[in-house]
Amino acid sequence: MSDGLALNLGGAAAPFGLLGLAGLLFLLPSRRGAGLIVLAALAVVAWALTMRLAAPEAAPVFTALGGWSESVGGGFRLDAYAAGAGLILCLSAGFSAMAGLEERLDWQSAPVAALRLAWAGAGLAALSSVSVFSLVGWLLVADLALVAALALQSGDRAALALAGAGQLLVWRCMAAGLSFLGLAFLYAAAGRLDAVALSAALHAAPGDGRAAVGGVLVLAGVLSLAGAPPLQAGAAASTAAARAPALLLLLGAMVLGLAAAGRVLALFLDADREEFVLAIALLSGLGALWAGGRAVFASSLSGMAAALVAAQLFGAVLGLALREPVLAIAQALAVLVGGLAVWLGVDLLRRRFGTAQLDALHGVGRLAPLETIVLVAGALSLAGAPFLFGFLVHFELLGAAAASRSPGAAVLLVLAELGCVLAALRLTLVLCVSPSPRTDAPKAPLAWATLPLGLLAALACLVFGLVLRPDALAGVAIALELRR
Amino acid sequence: MSSAAFWTNLPLALAALLAMAGAVQAGCAGRFGHRLFGLAALFLGGAAAFALAGRPGPGGPASDPAGQAAAIVVLLLGLAVLALGAAVAIRLRERFGGLGDTAALAAAEADQA
Predict the structure, then answer these.
(1) ipTM of the assembly?
(2) What is the pTM of this model?
């Protein structure tokens, strides 16, 4: 199990972590977006052909995705990065061309662009570092670059960006500091800090109290890293500049934190010690419950969206703890698709009505049906409503949790899911069923540039929900076993 | 735990206590400036823990360059966090007239919305 899980986690994390490279795109004028799409598509095709020639036995689709490439000694193969980079460049080039980056001149300023570049580089270094210590260190550097970029924002939303920078600094630094403290304990117990040797040393030295304390501290810090990006960067970046660059940055921060957390969690799962597995399960269950509670009582759309995504990310982590990597990856994909729909929906409604406060948006579903459909479809998919993307994954995840040896985590997960369902229902009722709109009329015209992407994300939630069947997940699990 | 093991681990535990107190302060304080103090304690405790986490081995923890290097890196990162935090705090003060307490930030968000 240990090698396979680490390899698959690593391979799956690589392309997502490369979302950081999307930051590079912000350095380029958006009118070159179409050219970039062609170039990046050519790069992906060339890479896939090369891999096909070099490893004819490998399935071309999976290798082209970079998801199931082999990794060696805890590091990942460069070709997986190249493939992931090509794909992400394609997506983000299309995204930026569609949304018209040139309208946001403050995001194009040289210091901010340099900081985004630093963020991308540090994120890449974090994901590819062999030592756990340097992984956390680079992640902190990436966060500091993000904080500085937010703090340097100018324009009408600069105050919110500054407040978001403060929140982001506190929460991410707390997570990194706790991880450092836990790593010091692990170092005292095992004498190593590089991922593979540390995992082996933990496996070989059971019963050391320092290892247990350090492990729980690192896990708490790493799970905070997984949960903090959507809660903090999400609220900060999406309110700071409710535009495509902010959404990309938000997705990048979310995925970077999750990928880094996945790498460290794989290390503990590979150590194969029962107390670590239980700690991961219980901590992720607690995190999901906390985020679900925040989603129910959120006062703004962006806060609710961030809490919903965070709760589902903790669900993905729980899937890892339950040794169900297929479910964890499927859940992460469901969160990405649903999260994109939710954030685009929030963005669309905020631009249309000038506010994201839930109280001010009663009954706006009748005034802005398309935007509301995007938001509600994403929220219901995240909450696991039937016939949507999240449903099957939730169903399987709850079953796996109920059958596991940590019933406490299963109970916490059920409570968190209940919170998410209540939050999504509250959102639907407020936006669609509320008797009379409190807002008189939309303050801005429909955003035709961003709307297609939002509708596409909502459609993806529905299509994946209808297409995905339990036997598809079983097929992926069998493919995973075969590749081991 | 034997008496020797207890005294060996006591400095580490004290460093952890400092760091955990800092984490609680950073998480719970109402003002941004007060949270920065918590972050400083957290990183200081982390660096101290690395410096004190000498490796047990056959010859004892005579020299531990990796642990000391890690302690220095944590300290430097902590300084970077404080410097950036101070810059954010100064800008918050310019804009909100305080060190960014949560009520002021919420009011600013409502105004902005």
Answers:
(1) 0.86
(2) 0.70
